[in-house]
Amino acid sequence: MAEQVQLLVNNVRYKKRDGSLYMMSERIAWCPEGKDQFELTAHYSDIKCQKVSPEGKAKVQLQIILLNGNSYAFHFAHDTQASAKSERDSVKNLLASMLPRFRKRIDKELEEKNKLLQTDPELFQTYKDLVVSGVITPQEFWNSHAAKLPTSDSPAAQNVGVSAAFLSDVRPQADGCNGLRYNLTADTIQSIFTTYPAVKKKYLEKVPDKLSEKEFWTMFFQSHYFHRDRVNHGTKDLFSDCVKKDDQDIVSLLNSGVKDIFSDLNYLYEEDSAKDEGYGASVDPGTSAKGKPSNTQIMHKNIIKRFNHQNAMILTSRNKAIDKQSQRNGEAAGDGEPPTKRTKLKEATTYDDLEENNDKIELELKLQNSDRYSHGPTLVNQIHQELSSRNVREGMNIVLTQCRNYRPKLALALSSDDAAAALTELSPDGAVGNSEQASTNIVQRLLSPEQQSELKTLYLSASELLRHFWLCFPANTPLLQEKVSRMRKSIEDFHHTRVLPFKEQLRRCVVHANVTEHLEDMFTVAYKKFHSWQSKKLRK
Amino acid sequence: MRLNIEGLLVYFPYEYIYPEQYSYMLELKRTLDAKGHGVLEMPSGTGKTATLLSLIVAYHLEYPQSVSKLIYCSRTVPEIEKVLEELRRLMDYYEQQAGEAPKILALALSSRKNLCINPQVRSARVGKEVDGRCHALTASHVRIKQKHDPSVSLCAFYESFDAHGREESLPAGVYNLDDLRRYGRLKGWCPYFLSRYSIMHANIVVYSYHYLLDPKIADLVSKELSKNSVVIFDEAHNIDNVCIESMSVTISRRTLDKCSQNIDSLQNHMSKARESDEEKLRNEYRRLVEGLKEANIARETDIVLSNPVLPDEILKEAVPGSIRNAEHFVAFMRRFVEYLKSRLRVRHVVSETPITFIHDAYDQVCIDRKPLRFCSERLRSLLRTLELTNISDFSSLGLIANFATLVSTYNKGFVVLIEPFDDKTPTILNPILHFSCMDSSIAIKPVFSRFQSVVITSGTLSPLEMYPRVLDFRPVTMATFTMTLARQCLCPMVVTRGNDQVAISSKFETREDVAVIRNYGNLLVEMSKIVPDGIVCFFVSYVYMENIVASWYEQGILENIQRNKLLFIETQDAAETSMALDKYHEACGNGRGAVLLSVARGKVSEGIDFTHHLGRAVIMFGIPYVYTQSRILKARLEYLRENFQIREADFLTFDAMRHAAQCVGRVIRGKTDYGIMVFADKRFSRNDKRGKLPRWIQEHLADSVCNLSTDESIHIAKRFLRLMAQPFSKEDQLGLSLLTLEQLQSESMQKRITQIAHQV
């Protein structure tokens, strides 16, 4: 086996048998004494965790627990307990360094494979065919497709921001003898440094030449700097210049201005020469508060200032890198007007919910014969013959001027409901208009209910037939041509077997109105179309 | 969408409309038809501006004779810019629908600070300084001087504008501040003066209140605006205070000292002038004999010092002989200043009417009423004659002259208050003379009487009937609109006690109570645990907030808040607050979430919106009563009671509640937005307080949420937030709070719409 053995430990007992433990680059294995085969192996990736026996126990043991729930306990049976322990610890340490690496890889691999399968349906299909059905193992499958997996160079880990409450996390605890104990962790120190660069500088200066680390932090927690409510008097304090540095920071921050002009209060209000000091009822604090503010007031102001600063620092510590980028994007255009301002204004003045959704699906008009579309139906020719081109133009002009001069008299306009009501009244079967022309509506009065329903069914079938008929055009395939002829035949049949008898029946019932006229018209048009098509075809 | 509003074709630049917008249009049209004034309260975030503009533009296009101009007054610069942006959208819509945009010229006017393109002047950044530098380059006498002495520098942009800018008018279109600057750069003209000149013939002017209400500026800028204009005061809930501010004067010892210095330097200049060119002073004298009519037609750049309301009769008279001579006038001013100094020497508080003040002045130093009236105008003329360029140096003298004119012109509605020391520091002598206006109708009266329609509108104007009373006008329409909602997206509640059942309140007696402060803190901590993104808190005053923050720091409450969110605090320093605000936005934007502690009546509460994630909850700690011990306020309350029959308590509650409403209203900026509004004070649950909230908030403030403990409120908030987190689509709104044209025209909807507006 070409695996590299990273650690070999002899005198390791497993299930009361002596043997040796091998730690390879990808797995851990145990081989009983006198044999040359591993009786037990476990991949690092399968190991969930390891446990060691507590200190002071007679047996020095190490237990590994696998993901599937199995566990193996190894007993380090060395001559002395110390040597056993040292061997155990070396195994433990190596395992501890190996496990996380594998765990991460496993998770990531799985994720990547999953993603690949989701994005590549063909691969997914083959995967399903081969792997799920058990033809090949997943391992084999992925070996052959390894190239498709993204190379596993891990991206830079995301920086964790600073917790806003990091200072309160180092709450002092009374140690019982009139002192305080602060628990500092590396994280907290890091947080303090990123939030207060001045402290970091100080730390680098003083530690460890002049002060020990412990002294430094003791002084830090004693300083006025940490206790933000105390007014700073003495200069003895190590951190007094940090306060000054912070103040400078604040000033420079203020001078740099704010990115978003809409949160700039100075921009907000109109300043005008007429609003000189002295006008207005309110006295500005500069002139009125000549009396020195009391100590407590200064203290309160100080707290507020520090809090603002601290929180701002926490915020900026996180996204320095991001900031740079966005700054580049947001650089002012030549006009001195940041481009973001315009978009901000736009944003502030649009109401999303009042606007039309833009994600409507637009239907595309598919034209197979664009000539016909742009020239319109041939019927126009008839009108052209009747009207001279001058007439047409004049008519157009009249319509145009009418359109242009059209002024809706909105004051007289009806509400849509009223208009609809009026329209129904005026329409043929309404209360007002009742002209002779409205033949179809007379149907109701002329025909008995049975006749009416029969007429309806006739219409339904006829329109279905006609629809099929017209759908065949243009009949450019033999299939369609055959269908056209067939349809025409069935229309004819329908005409003769259904419509004509119905007509006959009506005549017998002494109904004079020609209710089937429209139906027959439609048939005639269809016949005509068929004839013209047929003649054309014959001519070819 | 094209609408038919009682016979008027209105283009509304959206495909859908809120029912209240339609209703608002109806009311507004009726107001315009009647050529009267109106008070309209429309919930924030329901597209008030778009509605207003659509209707008025349509009205203007249909009846250009009766409504020739729209004057839109707003509060802050960003708001002004937003109005023009909405207008641009409307014009685009017209163009898209009708083929061409109507020939409408719309522009913004702002101070030089925002419009100047001269790099040297612009670099000053502070408003006053920019103005001063501009004067030094553009005043007429500077320009005359330049003709003889080429070394005097002028502003090229102004010169170019003066030479060509008036010949061709600005082409029709919508000009925002940036557009004006761009156009100015293109043409080489000064955008500020271009804009000031163009508002005379523009169809729509958008600017800040002060240009119309502050007589000092209005006199210069808005004096000649056409009579048949429609004036809109948007965000007008605070308009009475603006009026009062614009008419009040405060004089401290320092002002008077500076004033004496001003007089000295004026004297110097005069003697110098007398040596070199006596003719000039003599000319001035002659001019003054002829009367002030000429001063009235002073050229626009000579806004040396502005002028408080001058009654017309004064303008027709000649300047009285006693101050006609320049020396005499300076001596007169000196005397007056000395008199004021002597008055400031008092050891006790003095409160008197303008009449007694004038009488006293006459008795003490024989200063007559008549010359006092002319002070402001006289000083203006003198400064012009002496060709002083740095007029900003003479601001103190100008202030005193203005005070002299005001105190002698108005007998009523003002009070003279002399306080020898601050109430908080009674041992330190710091005498201040307040000349305080108590009648907000004085400043706004010319506006009401001149323009045919004045509409006062805002999201929070309740109780509506208060405004006509304090501003002294008769509206033809007064209406408040409700907000139609498909889901209840605002969750107001009154928290009256903490978990320990201790009542919470910001009232004076319990202010220092640790239990109350702790309960307030716990409320915020609990809220910060459950509310996503941004939380805004408002305190009643800076001092109160500072105290609470300090106690919270000691009690460890701030730490607990910081465990959940970042914390930013408003301060009295604008730059610092801007920074905090910017960081707050950033923290909300990147998902960390933040809490902003802020002050009612502060700048944040008035001008900044917290849309969507920037404000998911707002907590009002206490009722923001104004500081009632102030003598100015007391005088005003007394005046209101005597002249307008408004009881003190009523007015104070009205004032406090409109600020509270304004604060909590910041979080709701539209129907897709949502937010929790917590009123944390026992007193909010009383009917006299609750009843003064705008209707659209009151509607959702049921009795069941008016007496909650912290725990209960958290419970309600949790449920609300869970509900709001559900997806909300347009389909949910359609037909209820959002209408298509068809739905709008249906009969049932029309019936419902009539119920939206509540006439008062």
Automatic annotation (TrEMBL), chain A:
<keyword id="KW-0677">Repeat</keyword>
<keyword id="KW-0805">Transcription regulation</keyword>
<dbReference type="Pfam" id="PF03909">
    <property type="entry name" value="BSD"/>
</dbReference>
<feature type="region of interest" description="Disordered">
    <location>
        <begin position="276"/>
        <end position="295"/>
    </location>
</feature>
<dbReference type="Pfam" id="PF08567">
    <property type="entry name" value="PH_TFIIH"/>
</dbReference>
<dbReference type="InterPro" id="IPR013876">
    <property type="entry name" value="TFIIH_BTF_p62_N"/>
</dbReference>
<feature type="region of interest" description="Disordered">
    <location>
        <begin position="322"/>
        <end position="343"/>
    </location>
</feature>
<dbReference type="InterPro" id="IPR011993">
    <property type="entry name" value="PH-like_dom_sf"/>
</dbReference>
<dbReference type="InterPro" id="IPR027079">
    <property type="entry name" value="Tfb1/GTF2H1"/>
</dbReference>
<comment type="similarity">
    <text>Belongs to the TFB1 family.</text>
</comment>
<dbReference type="InterPro" id="IPR005607">
    <property type="entry name" value="BSD_dom"/>
</dbReference>
<protein>
    <recommendedName>
        <fullName>BSD domain-containing protein</fullName>
    </recommendedName>
</protein>
<keyword id="KW-0804">Transcription</keyword>
<feature type="domain" description="BSD">
    <location>
        <begin position="176"/>
        <end position="228"/>
    </location>
</feature>
<keyword id="KW-0539">Nucleus</keyword>
<feature type="domain" description="BSD">
    <location>
        <begin position="98"/>
        <end position="142"/>
    </location>
</feature>
<dbReference type="InterPro" id="IPR035925">
    <property type="entry name" value="BSD_dom_sf"/>
</dbReference>
